[in-house]
Design a protein that fits this description.
Length: 555
């Protein structure tokens, strides 16, 4: 008997799942599928990305649809258009053998006219982002008064992106008598409030520990100078022949710049950020999914909803400002039971943030040693020799002996020496052995790393002194700065950087380690940038003057 049939799914859906390579249900699928099919009560599911959530709620929704009725029976709300498209594609694959079912995706950045045409032809299931859905509701194109099932997927990210009011507005337009499922990777107080308000008698399931990381991911870190991060990134890519992953950056500008540098240095890379048009984003993702590019540079917001199989690595060029985003980032790899590696390129000033992440997700990071230039050359040479030794060329038998006579006169040792030398020179020309100074600079960081490893991470005294040092108390050229803007101003981290740039003309890249509170925020920056910011008095936000000053000076 098919394992999915034992959960209650019918034969057409099980057949489609089998063809898609589904063999055994994941933990979240074992819990959620029978639950949705029975429709007994609402469901609050805490599960990490990559655990099979889409099939967990998507397959029972498909089975519960009454094909004889042409109204919207199920609504799935997602934070990003990428995730919206991904879920829609998955549902269509699951319903391959269900005739007549209509699934429509609605999201911003695409033609609303075409989406309206699709909706007017009726839709049993709508997959939507909040903003576009509200637009269509206001135009009276979408009616939710008969919806039977609502799913909020990645609800924590929707809250992070400022969609709380939109979510509440949408839910208020749905019937009281409906089945609601809320899926989240983290359980914040805001998620709990949403659940308490809109879920009735909900059953709560937790796959793994709250705010925990997947067990199949190896979490590692390397301590580096800021100027060594880019060459270190290239070393990691060069050393791992099968590298296929995402590099997370703090800002849109940094994402674009690193992508441009990698392309210039001969890597198959591209970037994904908020300034790209939808057609550009679709093109980049198509190339990435089909491995035309092996390396994707992305910001946290742009990467939400990316569901790409077989990613080997996640690289954190900087740790996220919101440490809970680390779980979302690392969860892009090791999906569906596979294994993956998450490497943080860490500046010593980010040590406190690493410790916070360790406590949050309950894992111990392992130290990663950046491969040396000679290690990369040796590894590449080994692969070349293995491939050369096993290569079979049928044309060899047709070669005229006179053509190869100069080689036949050479000894084995001479041929091997020339062959290997030629390959080494080719690798050097292709920038494989680059920035060898990083090996020397890495030695300077070892003492700092050793101190971090030896520190008593559970000691309140050490933690307190470390926090004070990182906040500017004794931190060299870095200063902790106060600004009177925060979460209640409905801004995100990139927005704050952009506001600082527009107000002070200091690049947003100088704004590091943002701590966003209710009506104010703190961030770290260098002394020179801090002086310029503090002297700037021309900025305002929504009619309110912007104040920037040293955190220690604030009364």
């Amino acid at each position: 008997m098919n394992p999915f049939e034992s959960l209650g799914l019918n034969e057409p859906i099980c057949k489609a799942l089998h063809e898609l390579g589904f063999e055994n249900p994941t933990d979240v699928q074992k819990h959620a599928i029978p639950f949705f099919l029975s429709r007994k009560s609402d469901l609050l599911a805490l599960a990490q990305t990559g655990t099979g959530k889409t099939a967990a709620f998507g397959t029972p929704i498909l089975q519960n649809v009454d094909l004889s009725e042409n109204f919207t029976q199920a609504l799935i709300i997602t934070p990003t258009r990428e995730l919206c498209n991904q879920i829609t594609s998955d549902l269509k694959n699951y319903s391959k053998y269900i005739r007549g079912i209509k699934i429509v995706a609605v999201y911003g950045g695409s033609s609303i006219v075409n989406q309206i045409k699709e909706l007017k032809q009726s839709a049993h299931i709508i997959v939507a982002t909040p903003g576009r859905l509200i637009d269509l509701i206001d135009r009276k194109v979408v009616k939710l008064n008969r919806v039977q099932t609502v799913v909020l997927d990645e609800a924590d990210e929707m809250l992070n992106m400022g969609f709380r009011d939109d979510m509440e507005s949408i839910l208020s337009k749905t019937p009281d008598e409906k089945l609601t499922g809320l899926f989240s990777a983290t359980m914040s107080s805001d998620i709990r409030k949403i659940a308490n308000t809109y879920l009735k008698g909900a059953e709560e399931i937790t796959i793994g520990k709250k705010n925990s990381a997947q067990q199949n991911i190896s979490h590692q870190y390397a301590v580096l100078n800021a100027k060594d991060k880019y060459p270190a990134l290239k070393r990691i890519i060069d050393f791992h022949e099968d590298f296929y992953g995402i590099v997370f950056c703090s800002t849109k500008i940094e994402t674009q710049e690193i992508s441009d540098h990698l392309i210039r240095d001969g890597y198959t890379a591209d970037c994904l950020h908020g300034d790209l048009a939808q057609t550009q984003r679709d093109k980049v993702m198509h190339r990435f999914r089909h491995k035309a590019i092996k390396l994707l540079l992305a910001t946290d917001v742009a990467a939400r909803g990316i569901d790409v199989k077989n990613l080997t690595h996640i690289i954190h060029f900087h740790l996220p400002d919101d440490i809970e985003n680390y779980t979302h980032r690392s969860g892009r790899t090791a999906r569906a039971g596979q294994k993956g590696v998450s490497i943080a390129l860490l500046h010593i000033r980010e040590a406190y943030k690493l410790h916070q992440i360790e406590k949050l997700i309950n894992v111990k990071f392992e130290r990663y040693l950046i491969p040396k230039g000679q290690d990369i050359v040796n590894t590449r040479l080994k692969r070349f020799i293995e491939a050369f030794a096993h290569e079979q060329n049928e044309m060899m038998s047709e070669l005229n002996n006179e053509l190869v006579w100069p080689l036949m006169k050479m000894s084995k040792e001479e041929i091997v020496q020339k062959l290997v030398s030629q390959e080494i020179n080719r690798m050097k020309l292709n920038n494989t052995e680059i920035d060898l100074n990083i090996d020397e600079r890495a030695k300077e960081q070892r003492n700092s790393t050793s101190r971090m490893d030896r520190s008593d991470r559970g000691s309140n005294r050490n933690s307190s002194s470390r926090r004070e040092r990182d906040r500017g108390g004794n931190n060299g050229s870095m200063i902790r700065v106060f600004i009177n803007l925060g979460k209640k101003d409905e801004i995100k981290y990139d927005d704050l950087r952009e506001i600082v740039f527009k107000t002070t003309k200091v690049s947003g890249r100088a704004v590091k380690d943002i701590e966003m509170k209710g009506v104010y925020s703190f961030f770290m920056t260098d002394t020179e940038s801090a002086e310029i910011m503090i002297k700037s008095r021309n900025g305002s936000f929504k009619g309110r003057p912007i104040r920037i000053q040293k955190a220690s000076d604030r009364k």
